[in-house]
Amino acid sequence: MDEDVDEHHFGIVFEGIVNEKLEDLDTVLQDLLLYWLPTGSRTDFCLNLAAEADCANSTILLMEARGLLDNAFEVLFKQINESNGDQQRFGSGLFGILLYHLRK
């Protein structure tokens, strides 16, 4: 019962942060999820919000937590393809792909 309440409250906070449309939204969500990942990944609610907000790294983190590794890989691959010379984004995507293969 307490887990359901925690999940509900976390969902409200997560949605509120997404709706703020912060410039560094993906980073803010990742920081939040580092502590609350078990709660935030119990359902697809936060995953769907992160994906709709185009927060690739948060989406990947939530997909991995939910065991959706193939979907996470697709997001990583898309991130690399869309990097267009952005070395940090390319490096982040490449690192994620390497981690993906290590986990399989």
In brief, what are we looking at here?
The protein is an all-alpha fold and 104 residues long. Helices cover 80% and strands 0% of the residues.
Q: Given the structure, what is the number of helices?
A: 6
SSE run:
HHHHHH
Quick check: average pLDDT? Answer: 84
Output the radius of gyration.
14 Å
Please name the defining characteristics of this protein.
104 residues, mainly alpha, 6 helices, 0% strand, globular
What does this structure look like?
The protein is mainly alpha-helical. The protein has one domain. 80% of the residues lie in helices and 0% in strands. It is built from six helices and no strands. Helix 2 runs parallel beside helix 4. The longest helix is centred in the first third of the chain and has 19 residues. The N and C termini lie far apart (34 Å). 22% of the residues are buried. The mean pLDDT is 84.
Helix and strand arrangement:
Layout: H1 2-20, H2 25-40, H3 45-52, H4 56-65, H5 69-81, H6 87-103
